[in-house]
From TrEMBL:
It comes from the Bacteria. NCBIfam families: WbuX. It comes from Candidatus Magasanikbacteria bacterium RIFOXYB1_FULL_40_15. This is LPS biosynthesis protein. The lineage of its organism: Bacteria, Candidatus Magasanikiibacteriota. InterPro entries: N-acetyl_sugar_amidoTrfase.
Length: 386
């Protein structure tokens, strides 16, 4: 196994990486571009773009901002309302597993930014069924959240004729360097389907769809009417409205730590008072109590690393943590089986033994092996032989 010489990402990363001749990953290489970019010029570029979408007669919203209520959501909304003077419509896909502090933050946004906020909450029974199907199908019970977050706001854009959508940072650009910051990548249906939705669309979750995938035993009786919010709009409607999704991280130098402090100090954003089992950060993923927990534990099972690796790698790139300090965070957190597992097992009606058995089917054989005692083991970046 190879690890980045600068951050902590392994070559088995869920977000695909490449390494240069010095052993530095593509995510770090793209991050280094930030020092070369004229961010004032980029900010002016964004201002010029959004001005063309401002409602000319004030009869409609100027843009849509998809929000979870988290730190990034607060900063996106601050930037659009206070810096650029737009009137946005906030749109939230609510996956039903918010932490209490996450719910408070979500409700906070309407008041502190004086904006309209649309929250879509799917049927809880449908959500439980999707949790079970997607855990067994792809080792990701949160597929519904990835799909809903990236489809629901686009549906609203089409329905209300609001062409401009403002996202935060592009996740795979930021983590793995999928694109250059100079590409100014924008939202596409293909990117959402292939990456955000893991290559599965809404109809994969119906009985007929699961039969086509060769997994009829996972059927939960879901129909098209149950899965409406996960459908990306027809491309003819996208073209008619002129829907365009921009990533704010292409136009401002994205620094989650500084931005979080800013929205805490100025807009009443709250971090978790409780520590997480699998990461040292308390400011991220407050909209889903399982995102930092068993959802991330599954990433560790599949790819051999977890949320502490993600967060420490970000902080190493920002220059606020050394690689050695990051390795200590990984040692402490990445392997932990989190306590929220038991809440989720009760939520979906599953036994821990079944959970563990299904988890093992997703272990990457390039990462994991069984030792003489029949226990799973893998190489680590701190092993003496590395």
């Amino acid at each position: 196994m190879k690890w980045c010489a600068k951050c902590l990402y392994p070559e088995s990363s869920a977000v695909k990486l490449s390494f240069d001749e010095k052993g530095v990953c593509s995510g770090c290489s793209v991050n280094e571009q930030k020092a070369e970019i004229d961010w004032d010029k980029r900010a002016e570029m964004l201002k010029e773009i959004v001005e063309t979408y401002r409602s000319k007669d004030g009869s409609n919203y100027d843009c849509i901002i998809p929000v979870s209520g988290g730190k990034d959501s607060h900063y996106q909304t601050y930037y659009m309302t206070k810096k650029l003077g737009l009137k946005p419509l906030l749109v939230t896909y609510h996956g039903n597993n918010y932490l209490e502090v996450g719910e408070e933050n979500l409700k906070n946004m309407r008041n502190v930014f004086d904006v309209d906020h649309m929250i879509f909450s799917p049927s809880v029974e449908v959500l439980k069924k999707l949790n079970r199907i997607c855990f067994k199908l792809m080792g990701d019970m949160n597929w519904h959240a990835h799909a809903g977050i990236f489809s629901t706001p686009v549906q609203v854009a089409v329905k209300f004729n609001i062409p401009l959508i403002i996202w935060g940072e592009h996740g795979r650009l930021d983590l793995g360097g999928q694109y250059s910051l100079n590409d100014l990548v924008e939202m596409t249906a293909r990117d959402i389907l292939e990456h955000c939705k893991r290559g599965y669309d809404w109809d994969s979750m119906t009985d007929e769809g699961l039969k086509k995938l060769g997994r009829p035993e996972l059927s939960e009786g879901l129909t098209a009417r149950d899965l409406f919010c996960y459908k990306y709009p027809d491309m003819r409607d996208i073209a008619r409205v002129g829907v365009r999704g921009l990533y704010l991280g292409n136009y401002i130098s994205w620094d989650a730590n500084k931005q979080t402090k800013f929205v805490i100090d100025n807009y009443n954003f709250k971090i978790s008072e409780q520590s997480f089992d699998r990461t040292y950060r308390k400011m991220s993923n407050l909209d889903d109590m399982h995102e930092n927990g068993i959802h991330d534990y599954l990433k560790y099972i599949k790819f051999g690393y977890g949320r502490a690796t993600d967060h420490a790698s970000k902080d190493i790139r920002l220059g606020i943590m050394t690689r050695e300090e990051g390795i200590e965070m990984v040692k402490k957190y990445d392997h932990v089986k989190p306590r929220d597992l038991y809440r989720w097992l009760e939520y979906v009606g599953m036994k821990e033994e079944e959970f563990d058995r299904v988890c093992d089917t997703f272990r990457d054989p390039k990462v994991w092996r069984k030792n003489d005692k029949g226990e799973w083991e893998k190489d680590n970046m701190w092993d003496d032989k590395k």
